[in-house]
């Protein structure tokens, strides 16, 4: 029999279905982490392609090819940013079977949907991060003979990555919560598990209270860890420049012996 008090019901549900809640939370975290990782990879590729410079001296074929690729990338970004993930999940999961006779597994569909959705948002984030780096960095790299690829890898992307780290963390937190929409295609994550428990015991308020607390714990923990990573990437507030000149102190405080005034 269910206890009459609210706290008693919470304890009873945790005793009976605590393992199920943990498994559901684990599935949500796994999908969110994997989807965010591959979404970032997609976003970096699309964002870099969108910022490829086209100059007048380039051949017409190159300009046309880059223009077509950029147009396709822009369509991808606008479509997946302009439609809800739930509709995308239904369209991809059931549409792939109906149109192309491709029967996706639940895990592949979940990873794929979250990845391409995240990739669309990350593409604009990466593009903005690249453009936020001062143009003098690119000009300086070209002045010493670096190619566009070398400039992006060695100069621009390391700086852009630090600038977009907060948005990467934000996407991870959003994905932890948005995995709930995947229940529509049968993914047994935290929200799907909560619905099952609530329906079995008719304790919707209590069950979803537990789910909200678990979601908060997951997102808050990830937020703190990502904040620590950002501080780690910033490095120390004060540091000395390394130098091989034995006559120069890295702190710049070297002083010569005073000469006697004749």
Number of strands: 0
Rg (C-alpha, Å): 26 Å
Order of helices and strands: HHHHHHHH
Beta-strand proportion: under 5%
Number of helices: 8
Sheet having the most strands? none
Amino- and carboxy-terminal Cα gap? 104 Å
**Overall 3D shape:** elongated
* Percent helix range: over 70%
The structural class is mainly alpha
Outline the structure in words.
By secondary structure, the chain is an all-alpha fold. 74% of the residues lie in helices and 0% in strands. The chain has helices at residues 6-50, 60-82, 85-100, 106-132, 135-143, 148-178, 190-201, 204-234. The chain starts with 5 loop residues before the first helix and ends in a 28-residue tail after the last helix. The model is unreliable at 248-254 (pLDDT under 50).
Kindly list the characteristics that best describe this protein.
single chain; 262 residues; mainly alpha
SSE map:
Blueprint: H1 6-50, H2 60-82, H3 85-100, H4 106-132, H5 135-143, H6 148-178, H7 190-201, H8 204-234
Helix pairs in contact: 1-4, 1-6, 1-7, 1-8, 2-4, 3-4, 4-6, 5-6, 6-8, 7-8
Brief overview, please?
The chain is mainly alpha-helical. The chain is 74% helix and 0% strand.
């Amino acid at each position: 029999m269910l206890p009459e008090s609210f706290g008693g019901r919470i304890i009873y549900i945790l005793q009976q279905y605590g393992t199920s809640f943990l498994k559901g939370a684990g599935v949500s975290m796994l999908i969110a982490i994997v989807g965010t990782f591959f979404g970032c990879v997609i976003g970096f590729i699309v964002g870099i392609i969108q910022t490829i410079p086209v100059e007048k001296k380039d051949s017409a074929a190159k300009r046309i090819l880059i223009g077509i690729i950029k147009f396709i990338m822009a369509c991808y970004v606008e479509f997946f940013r302009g439609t809800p993930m739930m509709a995308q999940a239904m369209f991809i999961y059931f549409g792939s079977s109906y149109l192309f006779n491709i029967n996706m597994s639940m895990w592949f569909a979940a990873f794929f949907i979250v990845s391409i959705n995240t990739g669309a948002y990350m593409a604009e984030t990466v593009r903005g991060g690249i453009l936020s780096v001062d143009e003098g960095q690119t000009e300086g790299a070209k002045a010493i003979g670096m190619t566009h690829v070398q400039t992006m890898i060695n100069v621009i992307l390391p700086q852009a990555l630090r600038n977009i780290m907060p948005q990467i963390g934000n996407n991870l937190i959003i994905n932890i919560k948005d995995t709930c929409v995947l229940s529509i295609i049968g993914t047994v994550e935290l929200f799907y598990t909560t619905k099952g428990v609530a329906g079995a015991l008719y304790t919707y308020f209590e069950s979803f209270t537990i789910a909200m607390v678990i979601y908060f714990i997951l997102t808050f923990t990830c937020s703190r860890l990502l904040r620590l990573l950002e501080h780690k990437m910033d490095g120390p507030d004060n540091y000395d420049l390394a130098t091989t000149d034995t006559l120069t102190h890295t702190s710049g405080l070297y002083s010569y012996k005073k000469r006697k005034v004749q």
